[in-house]
User: What shape does this take?
Amino acid sequence: MDNYQHVLLAADFSEHGSVVALKAQHLAKQHQAKLSIIHLLDNLPITDTTYGPIIPFDMDLNDLLMTSAKKQLAELGKTLGIPEQQQYLEIGSAALEIVSTAEEHKVDLIVLGSHGRHGLALLLGSTANGVLHHAQCDVLAVRLQDN
Ligand code: AMP
Assistant: This one.
């Protein structure tokens, strides 16, 4: 099997996230691959209309969410030794953005959790499910225990 060249960690900053992060880091080291992280801000109150995107209320809240996400991403990047240019912070649907960012940056392995904040009771969360169905590259869904 050829070595992976570029591993993308999908980080949702949930409590089990470190298990997924360590697995991605370990795999990247094993394969001497580049490691990048992506986080999606998927719940900003932005409405896409014919006139372009509109933020209907509370700009401050959006700024706050963005600042906090940037901080968490930078902290995780520092812990994992990932340079800033390989830390992707996007707005949009997690599954879709993970898949398109992976394509854009020639990622050959996406690592995510079997579930996260949205799927604690499910075997496979909606993001993992969406990515598995749409990604062009390999996907590792790290099995997380519900405890
Ligand atoms: P979920 O669909 O919420 O059960 O999440 C499954 C996995 O997808 C998580 O363990 C993360 O690895 C990834 N994920 C979920 N939401 C996000 C997000 N907003 N940004 C990046 N990765 C995410």
About this structure: The beta strands are 6-10, 34-41, 47-49, 52-54, 87-91, 109-113, 138-142. The radius of gyration is 15 Å. The chain has one domain: 6-143.
